[in-house]
C-alpha cells in the first residue's frame, strides 16, 4: 500500500519532471539548439551520375531576442560549412511571435543571408508571414512584391513568384504562398509555373506550405517545403497540431508518395509561442542522386 508520503513524493516528482520539460521546451530547444537534419532522396527518373546537395533554410522568423543577428550569422556559417551545391529558402523570414522585442529590418536580414555560398545559387520564395506582415502587398493582391522579397532581391537572391529559373543542371521553381491572404487562401499558380518548364532537366519545386504536394504532377522531381515547423512539439514522431490540412502526413521530414518526393523542414524559428519540443531548429540537407 502506498502511503500519503509516497503519494506526495510521486506528485512532487511529476511536478519537477513537468517543470524540467517546460524549461527545455521553452528555454533550451528553441534558442540554444541547431541541428543538421539529413535526407537522402533518389527521385524517380533522376539522371544517372547527377548528384546534388541542397541545403534548405525555412521559417527563419527573424527578430530579437529569439532570432537575432548573431544567430542568423551562425546559421549562415553552419550552412556554408556543409558545402551545398544549392541553397533553397522556403519563406517566413520575419517575426510572427508576440515575444519578439526588436524587429530586425528586412534589409539587415537579407544582408546576412547574402553570405550564403553555393555554386548553383541561392533561391527563395515567400511564406505566408512575408505576406501577412506586409499590408501593402496584401491590399494589392496576387502579383504584388513583398517588402521581404524586395530586400532579398536587392542583395542578389532571386525570389521566385510562380517562376522557374535555371540552376546549372536543374530547374528551380518557386510557388507563391498558399496562405498569402489567410489560411488556404493563396497566391500560388501551378499552371503558370509549369508552363515555364522546358526540356528534360530535373525540376525542384519550392512551396512554403507542403499541402500542394498532394496535387503536384510528377514533373516535380523533389518538392521542398516548410511552414509546419514540424508541429513545433513532436512526441514519438507525432505532432499534436500542424498547420496542414493533412495533419501529420506532411508535418515533417522526407515523404514519398506515388513515386514523388517531398521534404518538409522543421524550420529554424518559432511561431505563435516560443516553444519547441522534439523538433529542434534545423538546417535541412538533402542529398539527391539517381
Question: Could you please describe the fold and organization of this structure?
Answer:
The protein has two domains: 32 residues; 254 residues, Purple Acid Phosphatase, chain A, domain 2. The protein is 26% helix and 20% strand. The chain contains seven helices and eleven strands. The strands form two sheets. The chain has a six-stranded mixed beta sheet with strand order 5-6-7-8-10-9. Strands 1-11-2-3-4 form a five-stranded mixed beta sheet, covered by helices on one side. β3, α3 and β4 form a beta-alpha-beta unit. The protein is globular. The protein starts with a helix and ends with a strand. About 5% of the residues have low confidence.
Tags for this model:
290 residues; alpha/beta; 2 domains; six-stranded mixed β-sheet; five-stranded mixed β-sheet; 26% helix; globular
Please render the helix and strand layout as text.
Layout: H1 4-32, E1 35-41, E2 52-57, H2 69-81, E3 86-89, H3 106-113, E4 122-124, H4 128-132, H5 135-140, H6 147-154, E5 163-167, E6 170-175, H7 190-194, E7 203-207, E8 220-225, E9 253-257, E10 260-264, E11 282-288
Parallel strand pairs: 1-11, 2-3, 3-4, 6-7, 7-8, 8-10
Antiparallel strand pairs: 2-11, 5-6, 9-10
Short description:
By secondary structure, this protein is an alpha/beta fold. It has helices at 4-32, 69-81, 106-113, 128-132, 135-140, 147-154, 190-194, and strands at 35-41, 52-57, 86-89, 122-124, 163-167, 170-175, 203-207, 220-225, 253-257, 260-264, 282-288. It has 2 domains: 1-32; 35-288, Purple Acid Phosphatase, chain A, domain 2 (4-Layer Sandwich).
Amino acid at each position: 500500500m502506498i502511503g500519503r508520503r509516497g503519494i506526495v513524493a510521486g506528485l512532487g516528482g511529476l511536478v519537477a519532471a513537468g517543470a524540467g520539460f517546460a524549461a527545455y521546451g521553452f528555454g533550451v530547444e528553441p534558442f540554444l539548439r541547431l541541428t543538421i537534419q539529413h535526407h537522402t532522396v533518389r527521385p524517380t527518373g533522376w539522371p544517372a551520375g547527377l548528384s546534388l546537395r541542397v541545403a534548405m533554410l525555412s521559417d527563419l522568423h527573424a527578430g530579437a531576442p529569439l532570432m537575432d543577428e548573431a544567430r542568423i550569422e551562425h546559421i549562415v556559417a553552419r550552412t556554408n560549412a556543409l558545402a551545398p551545391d544549392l541553397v533553397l529558402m522556403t519563406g517566413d523570414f520575419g517575426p510572427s511571435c508576440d515575444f519578439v522585442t526588436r524587429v530586425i529590418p528586412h534589409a539587415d536580414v537579407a544582408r546576412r543571408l547574402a553570405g550564403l555560398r553555393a555554386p548553383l545559387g541561392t533561391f527563395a520564395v515567400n511564406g505566408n508571414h512575408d505576406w501577412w506582415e506586409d499590408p501593402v502587398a496584401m491590399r494589392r493582391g496576387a502579383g504584388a512584391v513583398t517588402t521581404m522579397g524586395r530586400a532579398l532581391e536587392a542583395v542578389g537572391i532571386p525570389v521566385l513568384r510562380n517562376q522557374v529559373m535555371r540552376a546549372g543542371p536543374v530547374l528551380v521553381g518557386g510557388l507563391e504562398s498558399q496562405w498569402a491572404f489567410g489560411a488556404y487562401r493563396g497566391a500560388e499558380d501551378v499552371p503558370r509555373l509549369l508552363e515555364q518548364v522546358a526540356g528534360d532537366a530535373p525540376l525542384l519545386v519550392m512551396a512554403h506550405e507542403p499541402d500542394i504536394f498532394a496535387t503536384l504532377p510528377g514533373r516535380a522531381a523533389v518538392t521542398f517545403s516548410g511552414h509546419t515547423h514540424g508541429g513545433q512539439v513532436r512526441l514519438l514522431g507525432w505532432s499534436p497540431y500542424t498547420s496542414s490540412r493533412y495533419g501529420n502526413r506532411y508535418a515533417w521530414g522526407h515523404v514519398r508518395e506515388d513515386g514523388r518526393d517531398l521534404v518538409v523542414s522543421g524550420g529554424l524559428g518559432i511561431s505563435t509561442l516560443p516553444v519547441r519540443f522534439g523538433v529542434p531548429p534545423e538546417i535541412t540537407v538533402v542529398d539527391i542522386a539517381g
